Structures are given as C-alpha cells and as structure tokens.
C-alpha cells in the first residue's frame, strides 16, 4: 500500500513549528508524557492530509463520502519515530492558521489503523490518499483511505465500540452502520424543545 497526500498549504509547516516549540516548552496539564519529554530537535511531521465531515442531515438524506465537507489540514507529529500528537491547521480566507494540537489517542490510533491497512491483502499494491472522516454527532472518527473506486474506512478512537470496531470497512458498510444511528439521533434532536441537546 502506498500513501499519497493532497497538495498541502505551502506555509503549513512554518505555521506549525513555532506552535509546537511553544507547546513543548509549556509541558502543562493534560499533555501526554511522550509529548512532554520530546525534544524540539527530534520533532518531525507527516505529510498533510485533510479532514472531512458528514452531518446527521447528510446521513439521513442518504448522502455518501463524495458529499463530505472538507475540513482542517492534519499533520501527525512524531518524536524519535513515535507519534505524539495530531496538529491541525484551518484554512481561513485563503491562508492557513493554527487550529488545534491533540495530544490524546487520535494520533497513535491513526498510526495503528495505517499498520492494520498495510497488513490487509485487499490493499496490497494499491495507492490511496490518506484522509480522516468525522461524524461529530455520533462521535465517529475513521481513517479514510481514498482511491476513487473502492474507499476503505477504519474507525478509530473515540468512535464508540458499540458503533464500530477498528477494522477495514467498505464505504457501503460504514454508511449502513451510520445511517440508522444518524436517523435516530436526528429524530431526538428534532424532537428536543429544550435546545440543550448537542450543547
């Protein structure tokens, strides 16, 4: 399996470097130990890949991956070859700005999903573009390996285990899982008169 990446923002890495250096110096509450112990000189970044999202409305209307909305740029942050964070940049009026730095399980889960994909006979010899898909209302996150013909999705944390497990799914299989859940959730939201659901 060969990974490809979309054409990234030309100043993406320059935008992230000072943010990462400042975060390494802070070493504050909530930062994982691997991140806190990382040295700036040992930091490296993956290629940039895009986040995409589908809403409850999209899924209820039977929309597919081709209808997903494009979101932030993601970079995996490595120290000495170990994944320590997921950094995100948002496109704002034609240029990129720092969006967030996630020290949680997502970065390691992304690498784990890619290792799983590399071992899959169905992906041997294929070239795929790395993406990540979100359905925020269902807490669903999946690594999306896009090749234009037969997309493969691998759910990762924080996706609830009762919704999907970490294995390879076809687009049709993921949409079949998400569709009914999205419909139920949308009915709850639509019936809510308090305005508190989703806040």
Summarize the structure.
The chain has 199 residues and is α+β, with helices and mostly antiparallel strands. It has helices at residues 12-26, 33-37, 56-60, 106-118, 171-191; strands at 2-4, 43-45, 49-53, 69-79, 82-92, 95-102, 127-135, 140-146, 152-156, 169-170. It is built from five helices and ten strands, in the order βααββαβββαββββα.
Which characteristics define this entry?
ten-stranded mixed sheet; alpha+beta
What does this structure look like?
The protein is an alpha+beta fold and about 200 residues long. The protein has one domain (about 1-190): prostaphopain b, domain 1. It has helices spanning about 10-25, 35, 55-60, 105-120, 170-190; strands at about 1-5, 45, 50-55, 70-80, 80-90, 95-100, 125-135, 140-145, 150-155, 170. Strands 1, 2, 3, 4, 5, 6, 7, 8, 9 and 10 form a ten-stranded mixed beta sheet that branches.
Q: What is the annotated CATH architecture?
A: Roll
Q: Uncertain spans, ≥5 residues at pLDDT below 50?
A: none
Mean pLDDT over the residues = 89
Q: State the helical fraction.
A: 25-40%
Q: Label the overall shape.
A: globular
The arrangement of helices and strands along the chain is EHHEEHEEEHEEEEH
Helical segment count? 5
Topology diagram in text:
Layout: E1 2-4, H1 12-26, H2 33-37, E2 43-45, E3 49-53, H3 56-60, E4 69-79, E5 82-92, E6 95-102, H4 106-118, E7 127-135, E8 140-146, E9 152-156, E10 169-170, H5 171-191
Parallel strand pairs: 1-7, 3-7
Antiparallel strand pairs: 2-4, 3-4, 4-5, 5-6, 7-8, 8-9, 9-10
């Amino acid at each position: 399996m060969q990974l490809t990446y979309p054409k990234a923002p030309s100043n993406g890495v320059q935008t992230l470097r000072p943010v990462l250096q400042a975060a390494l110096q802070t070493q504050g509450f909530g930062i994982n130990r691997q991140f806190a112990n990382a040295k700036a000189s040992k930091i490296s970044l993956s290629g940039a890949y895009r986040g995409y999202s589908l809403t409850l409305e999209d899924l209820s209307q039977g929309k597919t991956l081709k209808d997903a909305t494009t979101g932030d740029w993601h970079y995996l942050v490595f120290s000495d070859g170990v994944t320590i964070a997921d950094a995100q940049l948002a496109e704002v009026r034609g240029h990129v700005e720092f969006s967030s730095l996630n020290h949680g399980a997502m970065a390691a889960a992304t690498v784990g999903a890619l290792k799983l994909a590399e071992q899959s006979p169905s992906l041997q010899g294929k070239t795929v573009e790395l993406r990540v898909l979100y359905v925020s209302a269902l807490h669903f996150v999946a690594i999306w390996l896009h090749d234009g013909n037969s997309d493969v999705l691998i759910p990762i944390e924080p996706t609830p285990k009762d919704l999907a497990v970490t294995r390879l799914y076809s687009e049709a299989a993921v949409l079949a899982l998400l569709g009914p859940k999205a419909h139920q959730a949308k009915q709850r939201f639509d019936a809510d008169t308090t305005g508190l659901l989703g806040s």
